Automatic annotation (TrEMBL):
Subcellular location: Cytoplasm
InterPro entries referenced in this protein's UniProt entry, alphabetically: Aminotrans_3, Aminotrans_3_PPA_site, BioA, PyrdxlP-dep_Trfase, PyrdxlP-dep_Trfase_major, PyrdxlP-dep_Trfase_small
Protein name: Adenosylmethionine-8-amino-7-oxononanoate aminotransferase
Positions contributing to substrate binding: 55, 148, 280, 314, 397
The species this protein was found in: Litoribacillus peritrichatus
Binding-site residues, pyridoxal 5'-phosphate: 115-116, 251, 315-316
Amino acid sequence: MTQSTTINHSETYGSVWYPYAQMQSLEINLEVVETKGVILTMADGKQLIDAISSWWCVTHGYNHPELNQAMTDQINKFSHVMLGGLKNQTTQSFADKLVEITPEGLNHVFFSDSGSVGVEVAIKMALQYFFNQGQQHKTKVVALQRAYHGDTTACMSVCDPAEGMHKMFHGITPEQFFLDAPSGGFNASDAEVAADIEKARQLFEENGNNIAAMIVEPLMQGAGGFNYYSPKYLNQLKALCKQHNILLIFDEVATGFGRTGKLFATEHTDVTPDIMILAKGLTAGYLGHAATLTTSEIFGAFLSDSASTAFMHGPTFMGNPTACAVGLKAIEIFQRDDFLSKIAQIEQQLKDELLDFKHEEVVETRVLGASGCIEVKDPSFHQGIQEFAAERGVWIRPFERYIYTMPPYIITPEQLKAITDVMKDWFLRER
Ligand SMILES: *Cc1c(COP(=O)(O)O)cnc(C)c1O
């Protein structure tokens, strides 16, 4: 267990300001010096299985020889070149590949450098789609309770307004509409879906005229606590959006590239979203990058004889060729090595090892694709679990009431069992 002693910052972790942390009491004792596959090697020689893929992005494992090679080959030509006014084959091929593998109809790709910026781009694109058609009144976005879409300003405005971590910025971020998080899980009944959809119908009927878009994390609200929900909800939501001239944005930053059991969560539904955002697994966790994809109809609304309808956005590193090169290779490997069947095996094992687990502290256990979660009653219950897991060779990072795993897809059954054992042993330990 950690003790709250005064910390000499320069000795413990230098001058780095760490994420989501009270720096006054933060202690970091694990220092990574090497990685291979799913293993993180620490400065003291300890080896940890990464149960959470470095915040859900290292899909192919660390230090992958082919991914390393793809990047090295690109770097030896040029690691970066601007996308303003210059084209290059790597970025173009990656965009074409993304259009090829995403749902029919998403034909245009706007690159940026992180999931948050990809979401900002999506929201800005949706609003301007209407502005370009003279519909200046369409300025609002609808999001779900429990949503997480990133930490920048427009993203904060569509994160859960009550439980989320951005509460103190209310009044500064734009005020948006929120609907209850879909209930009933992945296999929700028709009645449960109908009740949730009814709330959307009412909101759209009252305010549709001012609403430009609805944004959701399809099927899995990740940082909001692994709330899995029904594809039927999304099918019906799409129909409602269409009826009220509201664009539907799928934030697939976390769900994209296999996490829910299909290449994209969208594939569980009949929906092609109007806009879709990819990041995290886009480069197999090698580099920060994002892609915001959209339809020809939306793209078309930016075309005119006037510069005033153009999309005025352009992150310095958008379309970075090194990120695109590694992303292209990651997709090739994903398809060649049939990662979807690996994910199906992970899902089955997680179901076998987690779903029946019962304990007085447990609210529910849930699994979808290569993600599994134990929800506990009391968020303080898992204080100390990181040290406990590290001693048993596992790197895990619970938050709020959720102890979860989202492993790299190359994990072996033995390594995955080590993770689920640790998750369960925490409850069964002597206290
Ligand atoms: C992680 C995440 C983001 C933000 O992505 P960053 O690359 O961290 O900016 C946005 N949406 C969802 C669903 C995410 O999980």
